[in-house]
Amino acid sequence: MESDNKVWRTGYTTGSCAAAAAKAASLALLTGKVVSEVSISLPGGGQLNLDIAWVEKGEDCCRAAVVKDAGDDPDVTQGLTIVAEVSLQVGSVTITGGQGVGTVTKPGLAVPVGEAAINPVPRQMIEREVKEILGQERGARVAISAPGGEAVADRTMNPRLGILGGISILGTGGIVRPMSEEAYRRSLVPQIDQALALGYRSLVLTPGRLGVNKARQLGLPQEAIIETSNFIGSLLEECAKRPVESVLLLGHLGKLVKVAAGIFHTLGKLADGRRETIAAYAALAGAPRQVIEQLMNMNTAEESVEILKGTGYTQVFQHLAAAASRRAAAYSGEKFTVGTLMYALNGDVVGYDQGACQIGRKLGCHIPLK
């Protein structure tokens, strides 16, 4: 893969690792042969060769391992050892999770509550590779583990999604594309499905951990809080595809001012306009030229709080919140109502609109008008 004149090295998913380890273990179990490499089939077609780190032969079962290589992608599972233990049984192929693989405890995910967090496509890959070795007439029990996965899982979305005790075995294509923004966006979407499965039709979208903490502080239900990162627009689009009735945008003013300007991917290097947007709304509120000049010369959007507070124009943030709601509703095709609440770095709420108050009440949080 080539980008920005650099050749980025692709890697492989934990699902591919599990399938390859299961194939190597099955081969040792059936034939006694220990291999150092296997070839597996990719879901979209083609083959992938993976190195086998080790194979252990036993009387009733065999184990094999693959070390996860994410290529140049900043994947937290990089370097984890994915282990498959295979034993024969009558009937079908049963896939379970072991040490370091999480268990699903909340509804709304692709895997039912109570089962190991091994997603459907990796399960299909594992079963296909095992059956290729053992044949259609034999059944097998395959236990997938990831030693050290418990610690790594704390750096993923798993705790938020109710996946406890370890990582998820993931991958829809088998290959990790380095620096894949699309893959990261996809990883955020299950939060929406889970909130809906738990009965929430009003959701809170917030760009980051500070917003999650602020939402909790305000008494908003944890299960309704959706972390968007910089992909506010993408998550709004996903909400519009589902039976969502209302969305509360909650975040630092520096992010949500961009939404007020119609910017829905809030990464700074892609688009900014915060100074210009705040200054324009201040001008509409009647602020004098010297205030506008101060706003246009800010280093950070945070400075606008003191500038507008000191000059008596704090209502500008209410107008910006209302503008962000209008823009987000229009962007989402008016599929649901939107409210917006902005806060400063010290945690003070600086602006919100009537929509925020109404949605907050639906979620059991009272946001009083100032």
From TrEMBL:
Pathway: Cofactor biosynthesis; adenosylcobalamin biosynthesis; cob(II)yrinate a,c-diamide from sirohydrochlorin (anaerobic route): step 6/10
Domain of life assignment: Bacteria
Signal peptide: none
Stored Pfam families: CbiD (PF01888)
EC number in record: 2.1.1.195
Known catalytic reactions: Co-precorrin-5B + S-adenosyl-L-methionine = Co-precorrin-6A + S-adenosyl-L-homocysteine
Recorded GO MF terms: cobalt-precorrin-5B C1-methyltransferase activity
A biological process from GO: anaerobic cobalamin biosynthetic process
SUPFAM superfamilies: CbiD-like
UniProtKB keywords: Cobalamin biosynthesis, Methyltransferase, S-adenosyl-L-methionine, Transferase
Family the entry assigns: Belongs to the CbiD family.
Listed name of the protein: Cobalt-precorrin-5B C(1)-methyltransferase
Species of the source: Desulforamulus aeronauticus DSM 10349
